[in-house]
Amino acid sequence: MQHALLASVFIIASCGLAYELVAAALASYLLGDSVTQFSTIIGAYLFAMGVGSWLSRYVGGNLVRRFIQIEMLVGVLGGFAAVGLFLAFAAQMGPFRVLLYLSVLAVGTLVGLEIPLVMRILKREVAFKELVSRVLAVDYLGALAVSVLFPLLLAPYLGLMRTGLLFGLLNVGVAVWALYLFRAQLPRSRDLYLAAGASVALLAGGLAVAGQVSDTAESWLYADEVIHMESSPYQRIVVTRWRDDIRLFLNQNLQFSSRDEYRYHEALVHPGLAALPGARRILVLGGGDGFAVREILRYPQIQSVTLVDLDPAMTRLFATAPLLTQLNGNALNDSRVTVVNADAAIWLEENGEAFDFVVVDFPDPSNFALGKLYSTGFYRLLARHLAPGGRIVVQATSPYYARRSYWTIVATLEAAGFRTAPYHALVPSFGEWGYVLAGREAPGLPTAYPEGLRFLTVAGTADLFRFPADMERLPVEPNRLNEQSLVRLFEQEWHGAAR
Amino acid sequence: MRRREFLGAAGALALAACAKGTRSLPPGELQGGNFALGHRLGQGDFPAAAEIRPVEVLIVGAGIAGLSAAWRLQRAGFEDFALLELEASPGGNSRYARSPVCAHPLGAHYLPLPNPEARAVRALLADLGVLKGDPWALKPEYDEAYLCHSPQERLYRFGVWQEGLVPHLGLAAGEREQMARFFARMADFKALGDSRGRTFALPLAYARPDASTAALDRLTLFDWLKAEGFDSPSLHWYLNYACRDDYGTDYRQVSAWAGIHYFAGRTGEGGLGAGDTVLTAPEGNGWIVRRLAERLPGRLHTGLAVHGLRQEEGRVHVDAWSENEGRSLRYQARQVIWAAPLFLLPRVAPQLPPDLAAAIAPLSHAPWLVASLHLAAPPEAGAGTPLAWDNVLYDSPGLGYVVATHQQIRRAPPGPTVLTYYRPLSGEDPRLARQRLLDTPREIWAEAILSDLGRAHRDIRSLTTRLDVFRHGHAMARPLPGFLDGARRARLARGWGRVRLAHADMSGMSLFEEANYWGVRAAEQLLREAGGRLAERLA
Ligand SMILES: Cc1cc2nc3c(=O)[nH]c(=O)nc-3n(C[C@H](O)[C@H](O)[C@H](O)COP(=O)(O)OP(=O)(O)OC[C@H]3O[C@@H](n4cnc5c(N)ncnc54)[C@H](O)[C@@H]3O)c2cc1C
């Protein structure tokens, strides 16, 4: 009896932690990659558990009966939490955040009730001190098991929904087991048996269809037809299509729409490169979609393009999927192009090569790790790879939505010893977007562009370098590694803009 | 929340108990100084010297003080010296370890931006290329690779990581008021001084304590707080943390003067937005040790323990035991810089004048435990501020940990890392604490450390692949009330004939600036005697 209960403590503990991790991972997956998402969910959950264990003292009556009821409730609620939340998010039903916290608080409270109840049931059997240490040791082991398995096996292979449902089943399993063990103390419990049967059926059914549900729900998210979905260790890659519009999303963030990506990429590459007729060796950091490379290859004098992108899944996709290689002109398979899958900073630290033109196309500085890639320290590192007369261009977020962030990046390049030429372009699916051209000497403007551009003209170029009043330069400090002011600014500005 | 915290400690212990103590623990080693040899030094049962080596200047001890002395001699173009070190590698309390993952500290891990009066530190940093431009500028420019990157510090309390180490979340109104009042008092102390210098300068040799501030050296910081009406528990925790961090000593024992010096002593700032941050590197202050030792090929001799020292006929005879070779060597030096802990001097030098021995006698040292945890990945992000360089847990027996890979620039989800966990054995009698430090097996320390960190990081056990425990027996001189006594410090500064003393022990505050000051000062005295005028004076 005692061992059976301890075994169930192990399962209960695993389930408790699993729900918590599923909710937190789902929240950061759906609401964006900021750490705060993860941590506030965990905070709320821990708080609710505290409430639950405090409430447990008010649970009276037949303890075993209560315990079994709670187990079934936790199993079903916790098990379906991820499915429900995901559907709610995808269908844009109601205020998602409220639902999220309600479910976290509900499951957390129920989970908080469990262990104190088990203790009270066990107390009848074992001396208390020994009991506490045993229960706690087993509880700890359970949590440990999940904390190891979750990132390694469960989340990547089962996915969040199935993981939730699986642990829900385990929870209900504990209830069924308890029903059997304590059958003598549970007269007239048809209702319990029925409820247990129903819970098992529900969860098992959920498990069976979870795959379809998540695909369907995810495709609602993207208004358009999803034509590719993939999770790499670094990000969730989704490609959608509606008529001739193909879109790429990384962790839910739109990366391009095939309708207007030419604007973004022409503006990224040509104002800098077209002014460097002698450029032979080009470096692209980030930009695994190959669009920047496509633009670079328009210049016949180019001898080599090195593309350094972290994620092999991205570069593989854009080198092999027919629809996508059509979009990027099969750029990644060009004989002049070398694809390196590495962390840009490590690659720069370990290589000595110098380049005539460097395209820096990183994700926006939304956390401290990314913020370091927009720092004086990083730009100084980059400067070591710039050939005499060379230029750098940096994608620099929106000077309209994140004006201070944009000018911080300009100030940072200047503090790192560069002369800059800031400019912007309108990309309808993003809004006003900002770039910074930089070199040891003041960058000059091109007098001719290659054939076939759809957006840039020589006559219109000067306009890109003029900022209207609402995007004009602000006095801001550069982003130094010991302050990381950019990450803080960026969070404020996009937070303000998004709501 | 309570259940989790309870779990961290109780669950871990229970788990360890059922696993018979070792099964659940990551592998690792118990490391630290050569305690057996250190102990033998006092007993003198070494064979007679097998070889005699003449040298002009001999430096004993390659800690920061000894290395700084050698640096100053070389800077003046003086090369006829040798440096002897008992351990297999230099650095003393600023030693570091290499590892395939990342170099990491085994002791001192940061250097605050030096005050204007810390001229020797500034000149050293300029020489190493980390301070750029004019070293005497009010706010010099520093290489940002060494300025601690943001986020620098965070504190775990109430289940949340708050930014910075001064508690500011969940304070009662009274506590807030006391915090503000305390820091205002410290600002006043910081500003004290006259035309000759500040009252709380650093290095201590430049400090000008007047009668009223000198009185602060007659009571403990704890008593001063009580007398001043400070009773906020959060403030008390923080100040005790500060004293344990800087002096390895509980605030119930630290001289109030030293405790206040922690806040009032530092005025160093950097230009270009560096503010008053600290300098650090993956190996802590070990990067300075490494760079200085690289310049000493053929001069730095490790694995040589000085066990006898006599002055005779214009020479100093220094006997050193080589454990590797199993024999003793005799160095015959014209001048000696004693840069090893002072308490050893009376043991190896029977001729030592009694008044000097009496000036050394009051020193006592705090033992420290430093653990290196190799992690497969950084711990899961908890609530609040993300992983910082220095991560401290409220109400912990330890002082938290620093992250060796913090200064790296990386875009990828971070891979393996090394955490260095600090714990001074403060608050108990240092001799008993030292015995406990030496007698306790690694498993017990590892268990205690993992359950301490487990309060904030549930995944710490599963992530830790290796846990090494490093022990410093005599780590930091303890600045107890009375440590400031001017006559005593003056006696130490006079040295002993041809033997000059240079060690952080000289000022009773174990800080980089102090060790560096005394090393550079001893070297400058020597140079002045040998060659007359000095081109520059740094100490
Ligand atoms: C865990 C820890 C953390 C610290 N953190 C910081 C920090 O972050 N910042 C800071 O400023 N300070 C810190 N300190 C203080 C540190 O002690 C000083 O910064 C500095 O390293 C002291 O240097 P030293 O040369 O005076 O003494 P030591 O480091 O004690 O050097 C003395 C040397 O002499 C050698 N020696 C001893 N006996 C003999 C013998 N008989 N023969 C030959 N050689 C001998 C020793 O092995 C040692 O290498 C820390 C100390 C510890 C223990």
SSE order and pairing:
The complex is a heterodimer of chains A (499) and B (539).
Chain A: H1 2-31, H2 35-55, H3 63-90, H4 96-123, H5 128-181, H6 190-221, E1 225-231, E2 236-242, E3 245-250, E4 253-257, H7 261-273, E5 281-286, H8 291-296, E6 304-308, H9 312-320, H10 322-327, E7 337-340, H11 344-350, E8 355-361, H12 368-371, H13 376-383, E9 386-395, H14 403-415, E10 419-427, E11 431-439, H15 458-464, H16 485-498
Parallel strand pairs in A: 5-6, 5-8, 6-7, 8-9
Antiparallel strand pairs in A: 1-2, 2-3, 3-4, 9-11, 10-11
Helix pairs in contact in A: 1-2, 1-3, 1-4, 1-5, 2-4, 3-4, 3-5, 3-6, 4-5, 5-6, 14-16
Chain B: H1 2-18, E1 30-32, H2 35-41, E2 51-60, H3 64-75, E3 81-85, E4 96-97, E5 104-105, E6 111-112, H4 119-127, E7 131-132, E8 141-142, E9 153-157, E10 160-163, H5 173-191, E11 193-194, E12 197-198, H6 211-214, H7 221-227, H8 233-247, H9 256-264, E13 278-279, H10 286-294, E14 300-302, E15 304-312, E16 315-322, E17 327-338, H11 345-348, H12 354-360, E18 365-375, E19 390-393, E20 401-403, E21 417-424, H13 430-439, H14 442-454, H15 460-463, E22 464-477, H16 486-494, E23 499-501, H17 512-531
Parallel strand pairs in B: 1-22, 2-3, 2-17, 3-14, 9-19, 17-23
Antiparallel strand pairs in B: 4-5, 6-13, 7-8, 9-10, 11-12, 15-16, 16-17, 18-21, 18-22, 19-20, 20-21
Helix pairs in contact in B: 1-14, 3-17, 5-9, 7-9, 12-16
Bound molecules: flavin-adenine dinucleotide.
Folded structure, characterized:
The complex is a heterodimer of chains A (about 500) and B (about 550). By secondary structure, chain A is α/β, with parallel strands linked by helices. Chain A has two domains: about 1-220, Growth Hormone, Chain: A, CATH 1.20.1250; about 260-500, Rossmann fold. Helices cover about 55% and strands about 15% of the residues of chain A. Chain A has a seven-stranded mixed beta sheet, with helices on both faces. In chain A, β1 (about 225-230) and β2 (about 235-240) form a beta hairpin. The longest helix of chain A is centred in the N-terminal third of the chain and has 54 residues, at about 130-180. The two termini of chain A are about 55 Å apart. Chain B has about 550 residues and is of the alpha/beta class. Chain B has three domains: about 5-30 and about 95-110 and about 365-475, Polyamine Oxidase, Chain A, domain 2 (Alpha-Beta Complex), CATH 3.90.660; about 35-90 and about 305-360 and about 485-530, FAD/NAD(P)-binding domain; about 110-145 and about 155-275, Guanine Nucleotide Dissociation Inhibitor, domain 1, CATH 1.10.405.10. Chain B has helices at about 1-20, 35-40, 65-75, 120-125, 175-190, 210-215, 220-225, 235-245, 255-265, 285-295, 345-350, 355-360, 430-440, 440-455, 460-465, 485-495, 510-530, and strands at about 30, 50-60, 80-85, 95, 105, 110, 130, 140, 155, 160-165, 195, 195-200, 280, 300, 305-310, 315-320, 325-340, 365-375, 390-395, 400-405, 415-425, 465-475, 500. Mean pLDDT of chain B is about 90; it is low at about 1-25. Chains A and B meet through α2, α5, α11, α12 and α13 of A and α1 of B. The site of flavin-adenine dinucleotide has 38 residues of chain B, from α3, β3, β15, β18 and β22.
